[in-house]
Amino acid sequence: MSKPDLDVSARLEAHALLDRLTVDGATFSREDAKRLIALIPVTPRRRFSFTGLFQGRGPGLRGRAAGVGDVEIDGKDREKRVSWNAPRSYRIGGYVVVHTPSQVVIDLLWIATREDLSGQSCQLLYDSETGEPRAMEISVQRTLMLLFIRLAYISYVPWKTPDTRTVDHPR
Predict the structure, then answer these.
(1) Domain assignment of residue 51, yes or no
(2) Which of the listed residues 16, 27, 35, 133 has the most CB atoms within 10 Å of its CB?
(3) How many independent structural domains does the chain possess?
C-alpha cells in the first residue's frame, strides 16, 4: 500500500495557505484553514511516538606542526535524527506539515538549526467532526536540567483565533 502524496498543484496551494495562516496577527482566515485541513491527507494519530535529535562533536586532533607550533583542530559536529512510530509528514516549501485528526502541526523546515525553538512551530486545532477551525497555537521552548543533561521540549500556547468574517459576509 503506498502512502498518499501531494501533487505539485496541491503543494503550491498548500504553501500559499501556510504562508497566509502563519503571518503575524491575532486572527487567521477561517476559509484558508478549512482548505488546508481538506488538502493535507490525515494520518492516524499514534499513541506513542518519538522524534529526537542528538548532537555531539567528533574527536579532534591536537599536536605540534613544524614551523607553526602547537595546533588543535576541533572535531566535526555530528547530528543524528531518530524517529519511532512518527506520523507521516509533508515537506511543503519551507514547512514540514503533519496532519492528524483535529490537529495540523506546522514546523519551519529549518527548526533544527535554531538553539531556541520558540516560535518555530505552530499547530492549527480544529473540530474533527465538522472540520471547523478552533484556534492556532505557537511553540514555546522549555528546558529541564537533570544533572549534566539538558532536556529541551516545546509546548504550545494560544496564538490566534479564526476571524469572524466569511466569504459571503466580509466585515
Answers:
(1) no
(2) 133
(3) 1
Q: Could you tell me how many helices (H) and strands (E) the chain has, helices first?
A: 2, 11
Span 45-58, pLDDT tens digits: 777 766 666 667 77
Q: Is the residue at 55 inside a domain?
A: no
Sheet of 121-126: strands edge to edge? 27-28, 149-162, 133-146, 121-126, 103-108, 95-100, 90-92
8 Å CB contact between 81 and 52: yes
69: in domain: no
Report yes or no on 12 lying in a domain.
yes
Quote the cell numbers at residue 122: 505552530
The CA angle 108-114-118, to the nearest 5 degrees, is 70
| Domain enclosing residue 6, as ranges | 1-44+87-163
- pTM comes to 0.72
The candidate with the shortest Cα–Cα distance to 151, out of 161, 160, 141, is 141
Question: CA–CA separation, 63 vs 60, rounded Å?
Answer: 10
Confidence of residue 40 (pLDDT cuts 50, 70, 90): very high
